[in-house]
Amino acid sequence: MAKDRTGFSEVDDDWDVPYQPADFLDLDRASIPLTGKSPDPALLEFLHRLIAAEGPIHEEVLFLHAREVLYLKSLSAARKKLVCAAVEHLIEAGRVAVDGEFFDLPERPCRYARRPLPGLAKRPVEHVAPAEREMALAGLIHDEPGRPFDEVISDSVRFFGWSASTRGVKSALAGDLYRLRDQGRITGWPDSLVNQIPS
Length: 199
Description:
By secondary structure, the protein is α+β, with helices and mostly antiparallel strands. 40% of the residues lie in helices and 10% in strands. Helix 1 packs across helix 3 (77-92), helix 4 packs across helix 5 and helix 5 (149-159) packs across helix 6 (169-182).
């Protein structure tokens, strides 16, 4: 798969939004066939809508939400293969971009970091795109500049509903923060972090 990482955009005051799976109340589920050797145009359009609504979306989450929206108990190997073929078709057509295990619309920067709603399942760190984690870090720095590295990491852990003991969380967020520093997006390393405004 091709790689097309767009990263995140400039931080706005409304960078922090709740995470909610897309709602497809108007979808005619019976019109989306999951049979045959090649994906039906209706399946292509459905998956494009899902990626447009929820991107950047992890491939496992894409399979899960597609199954839930289509009211399927599970995705058989054949159906999963058909969904994969449909996504590949969208990528080849330039309608979807891929970055590692995440799908999104081409050239769309990540504008929001999505926090979990109370009582709903939290996404594991590997299901949150690096660009979205970077947006959360930059957003927290934007809202309260001048804080040290460790404090920003701790606030990001809480933002996504994780705990400090959750495996892989702190190392992933630290890697994201180092990347922001190396890209020149933040300054004041490591004791007084501020966002660097591009000229």
